[in-house]
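Please, why this fold?
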Amino acid sequence: MLLSEEAKEFLADFKLKYNKNDIISTLKELRELRVLVIGDAIIDQYHYSTSIGKSPKDNIIVVKYLGEETFAGGVLAAANHIAGFCDKVDLVTCLGKMNTQERFIRKHLKKNITPTLFYREDAPTPMKRRFVEPEKMTKYFGVSILEDYPLSQEVSREVEFFLAREVSKYDIVLVTDFGHGFLDKNIIFELSNAAFLAVNTQTNTDNAGFNLIQKYSGLQVEYICLDEPEIRLAFQEKHGKVEDLISQLHCDKVIITHGQYPTLVYSRGNILRIPTFSNGIKDSVGAGDAFFSITSKYSGAHFVLNHEYHPLWLISGC
């Protein structure tokens, strides 16, 4: 893999400041953290296809089906990422009874994840089906099968009561909010007792910019992770400097990602640019979930374990 000069300089500087023992000891400390992950469950399906061409009778592109794969996405993916670093992870999410996919979900969660599942009667578990050319992972189009109306009062109260009883027991609470109807204002309020709260509110095609970080403005959030379009939408600022928007989040730790461009890491008033370590993007689906999950653990460890400075939180911003 070819690195840019900026990336080479960053890694050289990092190597001078931290050694492998710093990193290994940090990873060991992460094992014992008590972690709760809460958010929207998503089933991701890839239907691999090759283009045949335009139909002679209709104004559509025709593709030939080659095969398919199904993945545990959304909060399920986030929980699996975290479970690779922590001995025990608890998961809270909501499935739709119209098509729960529960057997698939339980089978595809790591063994050290304990799920607490709630159920809504009026919807399926969200599924996002994409038709993909497999060689270059180019996507032709997608189909979303979901219902994003808020939960019924009965189900919402069940989740509220559970969180009111359990949230304060955890070192870190991670929220992966995809805007698909699970996390309403009452459920969000019950997260206020978290010792360390990390939040990612994703803007995607299905929520069309209605799922913004301001949903959590009444809470003490210790870590926020967004991409550049998400923070710009949140403050309705299309052209201004992202650095000026970060301070308006009123959060001590913020990371703003920007795909192949450098990541902005904000910590207590200081901003660091971390260059990308990749010279190409294969598939962006799920990248944000992995990034948020990993950086949240390191940021939370910095807070919970009282490290003066946490090297892995810094380098995980790449």
About this structure: The longest helix spans residues 287-304. The first strand starts at residue 35 and ends at 39.
